[in-house]
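Entry for zinc ion complex. Fields follow.
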Amino acid sequence: MKLKTFKSILSETVYSIGLNPKHEHLRKKHSEEIHNILQSSYASIGGYAGHKSGSKNERDAIMADVHNPEHKLKLTRHDGKVTSVIVYKDKYGRKLISAGTDGTSHGKTHLKNVLKDDSKMERAWGEFSGPLKAVVGKLGWKQIKSSRMGKLTGKDIKQVSDTEYSRKIGDKDFVKSGMGVAQEQCDVCGSQHPRNKLLFAEGFHVCDSCLDS
Ligand SMILES: [Zn+2]
């Protein structure tokens, strides 16, 4: 009974902006709240996307990510207030680019549940460090070998170990780990799959259905 109540509360509060057209209006409506959540969530690592915490550049970068129509947002609310948000972009599947909560227990639970679903459905990946890396690791996000991360990020990276690499963001070097499940294309039909579902044959990555036909 308790679980059922909990699940119905959860399903009522998760919004998929950029995926469900009915939720699109929430991007604008809640942009200040989303900004404040992301701004405060990245303050402990110095700022959002390499910008100085609290600077105008940081604000502009957050707002640009939120309002980018190509970006998908998973947003949760409690009593009409935004409690957590995740921003994704399309890159080798769905790449998580930022995430945060309003610091309440509702927000933390909501964020964990969305991240847990991502892991269960193998539908997202991202670059992580610090507390969020520990959180997604506990929720089952798989480690991606750092040797793959240059290709997946499209950036110059320096491999630190099998699981860690460093790359420049702004003018600083950050050590990160790739976590989750990235999708790669079948070289024959172009459809996307987790790489462990693509077979490597004759120098090509090939999906099941292309191999069968
Ligand atoms: Zn194929």
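NOTE: The chain has two domains: 2-181, 183-213.
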